[in-house]
Amino acid sequence: MATRKKKSDQPLSFRELKRLKPIQPKCDAPELMRINLGSFTLPDRDPPSVIKDWSGDNSYRIVAEIAGSALEKFGNRAITINPLERIPETKLTRNLAEGFQELDRLQGNYPSYAKLNYLPEISQLDWELMQRFRKKHKKEDRPTNVFGTDQRYIYNDSSFPWRTVGRVWTETGACAGCTIGPRLVLTASHCINWTSAGGAGWVKFSPAYYNGNGPWGEFNATRVLFWNQAQGGLSDLETAFDYVVLVMDDYIGNVVGYPGYRAYSDGWNGDAVWQHMGYPSDLTSTQRPAFQASCVVSSTSSQSLSGQTGLVMGHFNDITGGHSGGPAWGWWSGEAWPRVVGVQSAEASTPAFNTSGDNEFGGGLALSSLISWARSNYP
């Protein structure tokens, strides 16, 4: 039987969020803020130079001199754009995470110099482009799991907490993710390129990424923390544990902030109170973020691994490629940050309005213990 929550434990509805006024910055932003424009490794030569570019008064290029023989021999492998080609991993175990599974809710971090919007802002241009796309494909079959009318819309908003969501990408594709600690990023396990020799391939994250640009630049993962490596088709067990925490090479969470976390309760099944963000391949070729309000989790089922309980959270919200790893979160009264309850994991191979044809988030107490362990060990 589902456990009903007290009224004070109920997330805020879309109608309640619409009535809330944005919170204006309480102080000025730091005088200087660092932007990470990229990382790369060069052969043993002189360091690169920054030169003025002809295209604009404030345009610049980074140039480096590379031996012609190296370029002829190695081509694009002469320069390593992603210096961390393989990053180490930490697989959590029952003993390693002892005590952390009891923490079913974690605080977020709202930077006082940032504006807070309870709903992301949409531009008129994005709205018109989406309407054209949907009209063009109205009578065509598309490889998407959109149930009924597509409820997503594209946004461009660098206020809190939308700035905490960003694009995650590897050498094989793009997903979504969000900051979840001072230098931590949450995304899906199946988005990671797990290597047979151990560890994972390079992973990058850019908060508030929009059309090739992230206001705070790009950051590299230096370690991946997980319960289970999800690869190939996703079983219920893989979906229930389909999340990882990335340890980044800079404290980006301290700059843009990060949401909190709360363990999902089946007492919320059927409530239209969640928000979900991703970088859809169909609407934007994974280049612009999409938002969906009033999301509903329709069903839950539990799976066990390493003494932990993970949840498969079935839903019929609109999901396509590029949404994977994106958070599902809700707002609670009196709090200045949303709380993540799940991570987008799976799309049904044959969409249908039943538990075999639904989309699925992964979540549960196992996600809480992973985040709390990561925050404790990588503050």
Essential attributes:
379 residues, alpha+beta, Thrombin, subunit H, 2 domains, ten-stranded mixed sheet, six-stranded antiparallel β-barrel, 27% strand
Structure, explained:
Helix content is 14%, strand content 27%. The strands form four sheets. Strands 5, 6, 14, 15, 16, 17, 18, 19, 20 and 21 form a ten-stranded mixed β-sheet that branches. The chain has a six-stranded antiparallel barrel with strand order 7-8-9-13-12-11.
Sequence-ordered SSE layout with sheet pairings:
Elements: H1 14-19, E1 49-52, E2 60-63, H2 68-74, E3 86-87, E4 89-91, E5 105-106, H3 124-136, E6 153-154, E7 165-170, E8 173-181, E9 184-187, E10 200-201, E11 204-207, E12 219-226, H4 236-240, E13 244-248, H5 252-256, E14 260-262, E15 274-278, H6 281-284, E16 290-295, E17 297-305, E18 308-315, E19 327-330, E20 339-346, E21 359-363, H7 365-377
Parallel strand pairs: 4-12, 14-20
Antiparallel strand pairs: 1-2, 3-10, 5-14, 6-16, 7-8, 7-11, 8-9, 9-13, 11-12, 12-13, 15-16, 15-19, 17-18, 18-21, 19-20, 20-21
